[in-house]
């Protein structure tokens, strides 16, 4: 497997400029001869499809949603980072780069992260030009707030609806191209396989979710922007529909899968309330700008929070991390909350919760200001819990939120398969072992608006436009495989629902490959996953056996892929015998309970190669080197 990252040579600051200068181009009048298949219309996919179409390429864009506006990106609340330094608080491209690299615990590629910081400012300019209604200061300058892992205020936001507003911007740009005939949008269409012709990605097999019809699409390149796989844990903050099928099918066709075990657990979510739940709700990290996290000092203290005096409260993040306090990065804040609850000092039903208290901020700034900043998020909390966050502290607990792992890509965002590019949360690129808040939107839009529209040109120019016949055996073979899988699922006559099987897999992963991992737990999980997969294959009941619109069939297909991915995640977590970022191996921790990295043996990206159903996947390593910064031990104290 070729893991050459194709990073341009020269000083860090000039690498991207150099790639742009030296990359081959496709002439404007030739671009219409190329057809590009963009799968996904969230922030990464919509921005890529719109930009590529604007350049003159013909684009097909696919989404299993009924409208691009319903992509999971719409859920993003808190904001998007950029190094504008409007606040004059010491920010710079360098500082954003360094914070992101350090936040990821030095497990990401230096050159990619630097480019991300460089491009960040252009994203804000582009979105402002589109009319995205970012919050503004009294004087008219865009407002910012702080997010975890940073000592500056660089997060741009539109109340608690930043993802929605950014997506509306990208969607407008996409709609313009749809009406110009440059993009053909395929809503309610799910990609179920990737088609390789002569060693290059040349097409996909997709299912029309309304009619059940399978269709093949051919193009000169395939771009996957299909989001993350956090839903593999069953309960997560992700939109219910988000899934791993597209990237998993590509992996099975030969694309390397990088760092599958790097999953982010977000510290501020509404705690699980019972077994009936199918989803968890995030309370934006931005709340930690004004909210203070605490628990009673006394174990089992049953008093209401307002009856507990200051001297009997433990503001444990402020105590343990005095410099960053409540804005410690997500992995660290989540682990601290878990530790406190494990000690029996958690609050709320089952003791799996800590307080996030806006009391001080309300007293200092007034409820009106707090409502202005976080109104919709607080309203959501009140509706879900029936508790009033302006009067009593909120209860929060960590929940699965984001996947840093994903398909491996080089500097140009190309996977290990020629012709296959991967953007946004679907790739592994920039966040290492832990993503900092407000950097996913930045990455998705950097990938879609600025990076892939430039980098894809070199490969297209090299191969020239070419048509592949949909009657090519590769398309027919792929379609046959997809058809057989669907028929197998439709023939299920067992007793247990998809949801029932899914819950079992999710809770196993949460226990053994969640916030803390151990050799024993992971080894036993590997055995259990196989047993759960066997149960699923033997004892599945689909209430609807029709080929047309069939929600349980869709979900069963996605779950079938999750078993295989879950196994890869546990394998990866087992193999990485160190703790770094969100990957916390209990055997590798400092005396103070912090992650203990092992740079001598694990300063690499782990990339897995599929070798067939009956053979274990092969592990390859892309070594990481840091030329511009020292990979120090992370500290937020
Ligand atoms: C509750 C929540 C709040 C967040 N808040 C923030 C924030 O404030 N700031 C920040 O930076 N990040 C935030 N994030 C993370 C961020 O929202 C996501 O990482 C980002 O939006 C992912 O964008 P994407 O374009 O890569 O994928 P998505 O938005 O997930 O889009 C995926 C697209 O792919 C399509 N798709 C997937 N599979 C297939 C298939 N097989 N066939 C056809 N189509 C397919 C879907 O229909 C969809 O259009 C948040 C995440 C959550 C869960």
Index terms:
Flavocytochrome C3, Chain A, domain 1; five-stranded antiparallel sheet; five-stranded parallel sheet; binds flavin-adenine dinucleotide; 16 helices; alpha+beta
Overview of this structure, please?
There is one protein chain. The protein is α+β, with helices and mostly antiparallel strands. Among the domains are: 266-401, Flavocytochrome C3, Chain A, domain 1 (Alpha-Beta Complex), CATH 3.90.700; 473-610, Fumarate reductase/succinate dehydrogenase flavoprotein-like, C-terminal domain (Methane Monooxygenase Hydroxylase, Chain G, domain 1), CATH 1.20.58. Helix content is 36%, strand content 15%. It contains 16 helices and 20 strands. The protein has helices spanning 15-22, 43-55, 93-103, 110-130, 162-179, 245-252, 316-320, 330-342, 359-365, 367-385, 440-463, 473-490, 498-512, 519-538, 551-575, 599-602, and strands at 35-39, 58-62, 80-81, 144-145, 155-156, 183-186, 189-197, 200-208, 214-218, 221-224, 257-258, 263-269, 292-296, 313-314, 354-357, 394-403, 406-407, 420-422, 604-609, 618-623. The strands form 5 sheets. A 5-stranded parallel β-sheet has the order 6-2-1-10-18. Strand 1 (35-39), helix 2 (43-55) and strand 2 form a beta-alpha-beta unit. Helix 3 (93-103) crosses helix 4 (110-130) and helix 13 (498-512) packs parallel to helix 15. The radius of gyration is 24 Å and the shape is globular. Flavin-adenine dinucleotide (FAD) is lined by residues 39-45, 62-65, 71-73, 75-80, 162-163, 190-191, 225-228, 237-238, 242, 245-246, 282, 401-402, 424-426, 438-441, 444. One of its GO terms (biological process) is anaerobic respiration.
């Amino acid at each position: 497997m070729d893991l050459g990252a194709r990073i341009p040579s020269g000083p860090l600051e000039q690498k991207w400029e150099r790639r742009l200068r030296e990359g081959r181009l496709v002439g404007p009048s030739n671009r219409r001869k190329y057809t590009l298949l963009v799968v996904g219309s969230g922030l990464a996919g919509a921005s890529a499809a719109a930009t590529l179409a604007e350049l003159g390429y013909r684009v097909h864009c696919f989404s299993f949603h009924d409208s691009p506006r319903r992509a999971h990106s719409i859920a993003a609340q808190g904001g998007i980072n950029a190094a504008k330094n409007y606040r004059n608080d010491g920010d710079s491209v360098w500082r954003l780069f360094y914070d992101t690299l350090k936040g990821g615990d030095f497990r990401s590629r230096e050159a990619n992260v630097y480019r991300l910081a460089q491009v960040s400012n252009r994203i804000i300019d582009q979105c402002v030009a589109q009319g995205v209604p970012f919050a503004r200061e009294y004087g008219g300058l865009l407002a910012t707030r702080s997010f975890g892992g940073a000592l500056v205020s660089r997060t741009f936001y539109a109340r608690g609806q930043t993802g929605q507003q950014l997506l509306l911007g990208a969607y407008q740009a996409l709609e313009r191209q749809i009406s110009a005939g440059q993009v053909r949008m395929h809503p309610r269409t799910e990609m179920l396989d990737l088609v390789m012709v002569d060693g290059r990605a040349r097409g996909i097999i997709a299912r029309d979710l309304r009619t059940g019809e399978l269709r093949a699409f051919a193009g000169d390149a395939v771009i996957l922007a299909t989001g993350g796989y956090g839903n593999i844990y069953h309960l997560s903050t992700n939109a219910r529909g988000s899934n791993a099928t597209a990237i998993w099918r590509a992996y099975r066709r030969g694309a390397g899968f990088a760092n599958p075990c790097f999953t982010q657990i977000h510290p501020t979510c509404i705690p699980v309330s019972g077994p009936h739940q199918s989803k968890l709700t995030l309370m934006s990290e931005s709340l930690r700008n004004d909210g203070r996290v605490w628990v009673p000092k006394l174990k089992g203290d049953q008093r209401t929070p307002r009856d507990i005096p200051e001297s009997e409260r433990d503001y444990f993040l402020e105590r343990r991390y005095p410099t960053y306090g409540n804005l410690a990065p997500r992995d660290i804040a989540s682990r601290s909350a878990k530790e406190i609850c494990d000690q029996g000092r958690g609050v709320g039903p089952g003791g799996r919760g800590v307080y996030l208290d806006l009391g001080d901020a309300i007293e200092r700034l007034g409820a009106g200001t707090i409502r202005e900043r976080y109104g919709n998020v607080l309203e959501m909390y009140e509706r879900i819990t029936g508790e009033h966050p302006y009067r009593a502290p909120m209860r929060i607990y960590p929940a699965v939120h984001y996947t840093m792992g994903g398909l491996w890509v080089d500097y140009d965002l190309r996977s290990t398969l020629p012709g296959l590019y991967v953007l946004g949360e679907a790739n592994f690129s920039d966040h290492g072992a832990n993503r900092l808040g407000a950097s996913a939107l930045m990455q998705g839009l950097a990938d879609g608006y600025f990076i892939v529209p430039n980098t894809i040109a070199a490969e297209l120019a090299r191969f020239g436009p070419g048509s592949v016949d949909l009657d090519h055996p590769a398309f027919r073979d792929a379609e046959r495989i997809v058809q057989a899988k669907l028929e197998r699922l439709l023939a299920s006559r067992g007793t247990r629902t998809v949801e029932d099987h899914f819950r079992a897999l999710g809770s196993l992963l949460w226990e053994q490959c969640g916030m803390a991992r151990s050799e024993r737990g992971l080894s036993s999980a590997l055995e259990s996953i196989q047993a759960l997969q066997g149960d699923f294959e033997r004892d599945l009941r689909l209430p609807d056996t029709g080929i047309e619109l069939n929600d349980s069939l869709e979900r069963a297909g996605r779950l079938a892929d999750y078993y295989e991915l879950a196994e890869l995640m546990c394998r990866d977590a087992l193999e990485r015998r160190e703790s770094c970022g969100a990957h916390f191996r209990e055997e590798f921790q400092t005396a103070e309970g912090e992650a203990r990295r092992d740079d001598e043996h694990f300063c690499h990206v782990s990339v897995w190669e599929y070798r067939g159903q009956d053979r274990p996947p092969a592990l390859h390593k892309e070594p990481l080197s840091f030329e511009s910064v020292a990979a120090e031990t992370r500290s937020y104290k």
